[in-house]
Design a protein that fits this description.
The chain has about 140 residues and is of the alpha+beta class. The protein has a single domain, classed as Archease, Possible Chaperone, Chain: A, domain 1. It contains two helices and seven strands. The strands form two sheets. It has a four-stranded antiparallel β-sheet with strand order 1-2-7-6, with helices on one face. A three-stranded antiparallel β-sheet has the order 3-5-4. It starts with a strand and ends with a strand.
Amino acid sequence: MSFEELEHTADARVRVRAGTLEGLFSEAGRALMQVMYGRPGRDGLSRSVFVQGDDLESLMHAFLSEILFITEVDGLVISGAEVRVGEGIVEGVVRGEPFSRDIHNAGRGVKGISYSGLSIVRDKESYILDVIFDV
């Protein structure tokens, strides 16, 4: 599993790779935290997640939007997720640590997850997500 930030004129464009869909969702959440806080959180606290969508892209959009909501409302910096991806749903648990100005100060504010450019493809060995975070 891995993620990298790609060139984009105004926002943060990220490519995420993982061997499974569940890993892709978890790693996408970690990538969002990297952009927002300079690093993902550490394990400690957990929150349940459940989102619905019509296809993989809408599920990913809903999942990342839910993580953004949890981060902003609960002050939880996500370290990863244990999720199940099913027919039109993603459910499971995200883990993380409380936000700290001293630790989580190297990122950029993310206002939302863009549908523009959001794609999930599968190659021989992995799933690949391209997503833009509105900063």
